[in-house]
Amino acid sequence: MAQLAYVTTAIVAFFLILLPQSYFSESISSHHPGSYSPTQSDVDLLEFPLNLEYLEAEFFLYGSLGYGLDKVNPGLTQGGPSPIGAKKAHLDHFTRDVITQFAWQEVGHLRAIKSTVKGFPRPLLNLSAESFAEVFDSAFGHPLVPPFDPYANSINYLLASYVIPYVGLTGYVGAAPKLQGPVFKSLVAGLLGVESGQDAVIRALLYERAPEKVQPYGITVAEFTNRISNLRNKLGHGGWKDEGLVVPKYRGAEGKISGNVLAGDEFSLAYGRTPQEILRIIYASGNEHVPGGFYPKGADGHIAKSYLHKA
Ligand SMILES: *[C@@H]1O[C@H](CO)[C@@H](O)[C@H](O)[C@H]1NC(C)=O
């Protein structure tokens, strides 16, 4: 009899002690904040990349489908203004297929971040052909004639895409070691995995065509990527963190090869960038206090705003 009571107590204890724990870990793995309270720093670090995810979502949605978040998921915009100048690109069937997949992946990323932190409305994005043309003109140090049009064809669109997920990727690598909470670490690892996958696909598609001349400029695909990477290194003021598809051998993996389908440091590890470096690049101003480029009114969230207010 005493033994039965002991067993019953043990079973009751089992449910009392273990169930709440498994309930708790379930709530962590499904990205809901639940009972755990994140640090302000974690929240800021996770809200910051929303700026880039909005840009990627809109660029890929418009580029592949001809419309953006206002049509596919207006709630995610939180009432932010519609992007300027984004439009459907002239893409071949294969490229459109890939970009449409990226577009829906970005919608998922926005949902994932916003189910974990409150976030902010979509910032004003300037995705006009002119906005991209300015990036390409600065990359070459002189105006391209005719002005570069990201929406004109598949190769141009891929070159324009080369400009984007890589910056997000370096931001996630930079944020990872600063995060405290397991929910945040796991979310950033998941975002980083897919962003770097997107970058790898874009780079591989461009690498296949590296020696090809982009018309009417007569400049190779490889040269375009080297110029854009150099521009980002220059704007970021953070040293060498960006490299094109063909590099001097000593920059390649183990100093052994000049083909550079993936960017990586001397250990072939992904480069990380701070929010300041990222703002300098996406504002195209080289200055985190001076908005412009794709973000005429600046980026949103605590981190970006703290620099805008000190402008
Ligand atoms: C978008 O960017 C282009 C190129 O910088 C600029 O000419 C245009 O005025 C911008 N549009 C807005 C509304 O900021």
TrEMBL record:
Entry keywords, A to Z: Signal
* UniProt keyword DNA-binding present: no
- Which InterPro entries does the protein's record reference? Pigment-catalase-like
Q: Which residues form the signal peptide?
A: 1-25
Annotated PANTHER family: DESICCATION-LIKE PROTEIN
Descriptive protein name: Desiccation-related protein PCC13-62-like
Q: Which organism is it from?
A: Prunus avium (Cherry)
